Amino acid sequence: MTPVSSKQYADDVSLLMVLIDTNPLFWSSTAAPLPFSKFLSQVLSFLNSILLLNQLNQVMVIATGLNSCDYIYDSSLGLTTQRVETLLQKLEEFVIKDEELNKDDSVDGIGSSLLSGSLSMALCYIQRVFRSGSLHPQPRILCMHGSQDGPGQYVAIMNSIFSAQRSMVPIDSCVIGSQHSAFLQQASYITGGVYLKPQQPDGLFQYLTTVFATDLHSRNFLQLPKPVGVDFRASCFCHKNTIDMGYICSVCLSIFCKHHKKCSTCGSAFGQPQTNVSTSNQKS
Amino acid sequence: MSNNGKRKPMNGEDDDDEEDDEENERDLEAWEKAYADERSWESLQEDESGLLRPIDNQALHHAQYRRRLRSLSSASATSRIQKGLIRYLYLVLDLSRAAGEMDLRPSRMVVVAKQVEAFIREFFDQNPLSQIGLVAIKDGVAQCLTDLGGSPESHIKALMGKLGCSGEASLQNALELVHEQLDQIPSYGHREVIILYSALSTCDPGDVMETIQKCKKSKIRCSVIGLSAELYICKYLCQETGGLYSVALDEAHLKDLILEHAPPPPAIAEFAIANLIKMGFPQRAAEGVISICSCHKEAKFGGGYICPRCKARVCELPTECSICGLTLVSSPHLARSYHHLFPVTPFDDVAPMLLPNQHRRPKSCFGCQQSLLNPGNMPIRCVTCPKCKQFFCLDCDIYIHESLHNCPGCESLKDSKSVD
Fold first, then answer.
1. Which of B392, B397, B411 to substitute to test the interface with A, most A CBs within 10 Å?
2. How is domain A14-220 classified at the architecture level of CATH?
3. Residue B79 clears pLDDT 50, i.e. is over it
4. How far is A156 from chain B (nearest CA, A)?
5. Less packed terminus of chain B by CB within 10 Å, N or C?
6. Which BP terms does GO give this entry (chain A) (predicted)?
7. Which is more confident, A93 or B47?
8. Using CB atoms, which residue from B270, B281, B341 is nearest to A243?
């Protein structure tokens, strides 16, 4: 690529990482408001329009599958003519490979895709962009998600959110499914991104271009959807109910709704000096 | 580097490039600064054949990071060591005459204050449920700059407001004060003290050994960071109480040493009694509602959080409700500490010249897609995760272990998840 003068890297150059949920159980169920093909065509038009907004804009697409995650498309590799074809081809290869990794366990309902994996990969890529020098586009992440939140991913997603907050990378969320996603609401709130659940998913392209297309600098001048009703209450480890007030184990920070004699996560007995018990290998 | 910026007049050689005759007493020209101040020749190194090349900072940085990671993980190699997550930490700053020394520019006191500010922010980022208090030693007396509290801004404001140094330093008075304050905290908290000591002596009213034994009995973990030279009394204090003693060589080293204390230290189990702490998880108050907030005692419009027990409004979290005393946190605050409990396994080095199955190595890093082959198509150094067997570049390795705390490879594999 020809060297770019610093004047061209104005405030409004952006690097958009798009994380697309390809969970086949979700897209084939009634929870999906529109078929995957229509969804893809709207997203592809959106990506094209992002690349038209500024000559130096970059787009990366990562697919969030049920059993794996992978990079699908990188706009900095050139290829302006065959863009859509290469993207679709790689996406198809990914979906086939993802399905082969299916174990025979039965999954309840629509299952949850590996959002923590694709978020981590996106953040690693963004760090690479930061390392490349002082002339770089402003990165942000857009999650197009529909599957349910997987409770086993809570710790990993929170780690990604805090890392994004420290690097000042906003995480925008566009939720296609039928229910709100508490994880993505927290992600967008903590990192300063936009959370949106479109009320008419048929018109997805319009939502994408009006809400998610603007770069970070121009967002200051727009009225974007505000966070409303973000629930920061915790759920207790014993019943998984959301609670207002609870008891926290001082050793492992597990949350309980009632007073217990012993912590079920780390085994410490409360109220007595403990012996050197190692924390158990459980994720909450 | 005690060069005070003034250049002595050069006798003998005359530089042809000199244009002014007045540089003896004035500021240095930019090209001169490269020689006088920055010592640019130090960043060159000889390689095996005797040719000069610049120091490979990336490899050095990575080697340093790997060493640190190895020393940390070897301690907890077999079993998971508990960490003290709820910490009550006192920072003791030495503001005696020795803190006015100028071997760290502009003076030791200013450099320490700057690093302490960065430390306070990092500390609350990694330990949101913990509290810090500041103590200053000045004129042989120790005084509390701030009480134990959880808001970084109030500590930093108090710190920057009072920077003047004079008098002697007294280790015993500082330890007595800290001991008295830390006696009042709940039994599940871990008590720690970090002393930033610049003086070379201590001027005590009584027997400092007795005070050290008192601290040891109260299970206070004292660490010292020295700014001048190693002192026996500091070493003894740290050994008795189980803390760390280190002496800073320059400003960058001081920063590293201070930030080493930000993550929770391995806890000695008998030091703190496990307990169930009652905490509240407030919801956000409705927008557009006017109420009087209990922290500032003035009417505020919208925002804020409502205490679930007494319904008072507070402005920010985490905090203690000033009406009913309930600790108020939000679930992300607890989640910030979870990575201490579930750390990422250190990655294994991969030898650059892999044996015959060279084709087994992927061409790019799994995390950032950077090429793992240098321009000559030779493989460069990389690392691999022992669990998911994916390959990562050195920079991703550092980022994953220091900031992200998730392995992208493990997170992208379905079977490594324990689904509830």
1. B411
2. 3-Layer(aba) Sandwich (3.40)
3. no
4. 6
5. N
6. nucleotide-excision repair; regulation of DNA-templated transcription
7. A93
8. B281
pTM: 0.81
> How would DSSP label each residue in chain A?
-----GGGS-TT-EEEEEEEE--HHHHTSTT-SS-HHHHHHHHHHHHHHHHHH-TT-EEEEEEE-SS-EEEEEEGGG--SSSHHHHHHHHHHHHHHHHHHT--S----TT----HHHHHHHHHHHHHHHHHT-S--PEEEEEEEE-SPPPGGGHHHHHHHHHHHHHHT--EEEEE-SSS--HHHHHHHHHHT--EE--S-GGGHHHHIIIIISS-TTGGGGS-PPPP------EE-TTT--EESEEEEETTT--EESS--SB-TTT-PBTTS----PPPPS---
Highest mean pLDDT among A205-214, B182-191, B357-366: A205-214
How far apart are alpha carbons B288 and B306 in whole angstroms?
A: 14
Smallest CA–CA separation between A202 and chain B, in Å?
30
- pLDDT: which is higher, A269 or A48: A48
Give pLDDT tens digits for B119-141.
999 999 888 889 999 999 988 89
Residue B36 near chain A (CB below 8 Å) = no
Between chain A and chain B, the number of residue pairs with CB atoms below 8 A apart is 211
Look at A123 and B189 and tell me if their CB atoms are within 8 Å.
Answer: no
Q: Say if B175 is an interface residue toward chain A (CB within 8 Å).
A: no
Tell me the pLDDT of chain B averaged across its residues: 81
Cβ under 8 Å to A: B residues 90-129: 125, 129
pLDDT higher than 80, residue B60: no
| B400 and chain A in contact, CB less than 8 A | yes
Q: Under a CB-based contact definition with an 8 Å cutoff, are residues A40 and A15 in contact?
A: no
Contact B335 A114 (CB under 8 A): no
Does residue B264 belong to the interface with chain A, where contact is any CB pair within 8 Å?
no
Q: Euclidean distance between the first and final Cα of chain B, in Å?
A: 58
Rg (alpha carbons) of chain B, rounded to whole number: 26
Residue A267 Rama label (left phi>0; alpha psi -120 to 50; beta): left
CB-nearest partner of A127 from B86, B337, B395: B395
Q: How many CB atoms lie within 10 A of CB B206?
A: 10
Q: Which of residues 176-205 of A touch B (CB under 8 A)?
A: 186, 190
For A42-74, the pLDDT digits (tens) are 999 999 999 999 888 999 999 999 999 999 999
- pLDDT tens digits, residue range A111-161? 889 999 999 999 999 999 998 877 889 999 999 999 988 888 888 999 999
Burial of A133 (0-12, 13-18, 19+ CB in 10 A): exposed
Contact B281/A283, CB-based, under 8 Å? Answer: no
Q: Going by C-beta distance under 8 Å and a sequence separation of 6 or more, which residues neighbour residue A3?
A: none
User: b vs e for B252-270, b when ≥16 Cβ sit within 10 Å of the residue's Cβ?
Assistant: eebbebbebbbbbbebebe
Question: Do B80 and A279 lie within an 8 Å CB cutoff?
Answer: yes
Classify A102 in phi/psi space as left (phi over 0), alpha (psi -120 to 50) or beta.
beta
Where are the domains positioned within chain A? 14-220, 233-284
Q: Do A274 and B269 touch (CB under 8 A)?
A: yes
CB contact under 8 A, A253 and B85: yes
Is the confidence metric ipTM above 0.85 for this complex? Answer: yes
